[in-house]
């Protein structure tokens, strides 16, 4: 493919990269998506809905594959299926998060449906591959525009429901007694996840959606005491992983999604180790003080 | 001083429950401004149902109930509420202050990034229950008694006139139980609010109570603790012979109902 070597001068490297339209689009879309996934992911982890989010992406697979079969842009199929699935899961109620078996059954069926659509489609297997694992280097400028518009809608909606959604996620019973429409908030939340999933699929694909939507937020949730900080950390991690992933993949022949998933995984493990050590040290310190007094 | 305020809660011929399954019936009572009232009775007798009625989450089957001289409505900002089995994710690292803040501004749509009102109100509320040192502690790391204080602050932060506390004392040891009762009592007196508290064990509450609502056997009895907690009145309520025994410090034990088995815990 392209034979360009790493120059150890970040600025010239980036200038070199951005001469290519596909790299520019990748960075643009990747940046927008990392921000959105970081924000929405924070609520996914706070509400313990990561399995529902995971299921949504699989439901989206059937939608995307169906769209490919009928010659429609996959993003349309993704949006339709994830939104429909999201509303259904939300209407099952908050306890839906605990209904792993039902959700799991539906997601398996949807994957099966997706496989059927793919096999009926006489085109290339690469379509299926890019839906499953993402294809950020194949993003067009119109894809970037769609991503930008969808992201602005998500941002606006999140700003409107921010405090009620936080309240209902953290303390549902009191929020309900205070007159908040908790079921409606659940539907809005799942729609946010649906749209965020649909656009994130371009970067990491259906199977790896966790890497952008859940892992950065899970790390943030371990570190932050305030939601604002949590959301910021979550965004920074998602951005960091996406940028580094894109940067490295420009020089190495391996998929971007592999780098992104690896970076967030390493960060997650490091956070766990750091926290264990921290707890261990502080309990030792406490024991020491207790002996003293 | 002579001005008498209207009652906070009035119930007339009140029957509650679900379709063809009444929980209790024909209750008539009033709760006056500033009263500290305990609600007791066996499991499943419909204590929480009374709260759901007052919060506008459930409608009476018959009769009327009024709170602040109006029919209960959802989202009444004059009511502070601590639900039963109030669960906060054990693993959450979010600090107490954030939860209390949401009690103040969590029902407001949109963002208000430059306002410090909710933070200040939350600090004040935590301080009023003696929990300011918990402000920056993670909710997941708090003990049962500490959590109940934070919940109390969350309920108080919107400066309600009526507090509904559903079993805040359960799962606390005797010392924590007494401390929390004292905190609630102080709040009720200082802020001049009315408080209804559902409890399993009346004893830690006896020194501070104005009234007791005893719900059992589909019926409701209300009055001063000395009037309600007697062998005669409880026998009439249950419809069987029960006996109320008094300890040397005034503690009571009800003998002859199924729930005295719970009194050992």
Number of strands of chain B: 11
Strand count, sense and barrel status of the largest sheet of chain A are: none
Number of helices of chain A: 13
- Can you list the strand order of the major beta sheet of chain B? 5-6-7-3-8-9
Overall geometry of chain A: globular
Spatial separation of the terminal alpha carbons of chain A? 69 Å
% residues in beta strands of chain B: 15-25%
Radius of gyration of chain B (CA) equals: 19 Å
**Helix proportion of chain B:** 25-40%
Average pLDDT metric of chain A: 89
The end-to-end distance of chain B, rounded to whole angstroms, is: 44 Å
Order of helices and strands of chain A: HHHHHHHHHHHHH
* Overall mean confidence score, pLDDT of chain B: 90
Q: Approximately how much beta-strand content do the residues of chain A carry?
A: under 5%
Determine Rg of chain A (CA atoms, Å): 21 Å
Portion in helices of chain A = over 70%
Indicate the multimeric state.
heterodimer
Number of helices of chain B: 7
Give the overall silhouette of chain B.
Answer: globular
Number of strands of chain A: 0
Polypeptide structure, described:
- The complex is a heterodimer of chains A (293) and B (265).
- Chain A is mostly helical and 293 residues long.
- Helix content of chain A is 81%, strand content 0%.
- Chain A has 13 helices and no strands.
- Chain A has helices spanning 10-18, 21-46, 50-69, 74-91, 100-120, 125-133, 141-170, 172-177, 182-204, 209-213, 215-223, 227-251, 256-292.
- In chain A, α2 runs parallel beside α7 (141-170) and α3 (50-69) runs antiparallel to α6 (125-133).
- Chain A is globular, with a radius of gyration of 21 Å.
- In chain A, 49% of the residues are buried.
- The model of chain A has no long low-confidence stretch (mean pLDDT 89).
- By secondary structure, chain B is of the alpha/beta class.
- In chain B, the strands form 3 sheets. A 6-stranded mixed β-sheet of chain B has the order 5-6-7-3-8-9, sandwiched between helices. In chain B, strands 2-1-4 form a 3-stranded antiparallel β-sheet, with helices on one face.
- In chain B, a hairpin with a 5-residue loop joins β10 (243-246) and β11.
- In chain B, α2 runs parallel beside α4.
- The longest helix of chain B has 18 residues, at 174-191.
- Mean pLDDT of chain B is 90; it is low at 260-265.
- At the A-B interface, α7, α8 and α11 of A face β5 and α2 of B.
